[in-house]
Automatic annotation (TrEMBL):
Domain Small ribosomal subunit protein uS10 per the UniProt entry, residue ranges: 58-156
Compartment(s) where it occurs, according to its Swiss-Prot or TrEMBL record: Mitochondrion
Keyword terms of this UniProt record: Mitochondrion, Ribonucleoprotein, Ribosomal protein
Protein source organism: Galleria mellonella
InterPro entries found in the cross-reference section: Ribosomal_uS10_dom (IPR027486), Ribosomal_uS10_dom_sf (IPR036838), Ribosomal_uS10m (IPR040055)
One term under GO cellular component: mitochondrial small ribosomal subunit
Protein family (similarity comment): Belongs to the universal ribosomal protein uS10 family.
Gene3D superfamilies: Ribosomal protein S10 domain
Keyword hit for Ribonucleoprotein: yes
Designated name of the protein: Small ribosomal subunit protein uS10m
One Pfam family from the record: Ribosomal_S10
Species lineage: Eukaryota, Metazoa, Ecdysozoa, Arthropoda, Hexapoda
Length: 173
């Protein structure tokens, strides 16, 4: 496959780095561009950045209202399915995390008269697998913009990376 066809299939950001006199589009009446000057080819290949690959993206949602949290998790799963993202796990903890605070009604006297306050935090988790960096950024921006009141979102990304050059496979004897 020649270089012109490979450049045409690459992202628009890479096509914009090519000089303006280079035409990567093909009209119906003219033959396709078959040769690219070597200077342009070297410039394009040196500026190519590969997209990141994520093995798994974990979403942790916290909220004070379980119904709102459930609705938001449905929204996140529906948005993932529209973008073609594979959702592997979607679950919630059985019990809420409770934080209790005991205070005196009157600071000075009446030690017997205390008030107890409780804060419940509900959790939901979603695991997404095999994402590219651009798809992940688009998806996360969309769901973060639609985050409801009283909810928090924590994102953990597990990125696939190339094995470093100093690590070599074992030699079989």
């Amino acid at each position: 496959m020649n270089v012109a066809k490979r450049l045409f299939r690459l992202a628009p950001a890479i096509r914009s780095t090519v000089s303006p006199n280079f035409v990567a589009l093909r009209c119906l009446s003219t033959p396709p561009v078959t040769s690219v000057p070597s200077q342009i080819q070297d410039n394009v290949l040196s500026t190519i950045e590969l997209d990141k690959l994520y093995k798994r993206v974990e979403l942790e949602m916290r909220g004070i209202d379980p119904a709102v949290l459930l609705s938001y998790s449905w929204f996140c799963v529906a948005a993932a399915s529209h973008l073609g993202i594979e959702v592997t796990k979607n679950w919630a903890l059985r019990k809420a995390e409770k934080e209790r605070h005991t205070l005196l009604r009157c600071v000075h006297i009446y030690k017997k008269h205390k008030v107890q306050y409780e804060i419940r935090t509900y959790f939901r988790f979603i695991h997404l697998q095999r994402l590219t960096g651009s798809t992940c950024d688009t998806y996360l921006e969309y769901i973060q913009r639609n985050l409801p009141e009283g909810c928090a979102l924590k994102v953990t990304k597990i990125e696939c990376q190339k094995i470093p050059d100093h690590i070599t496979p074992p030699i079989a004897e």
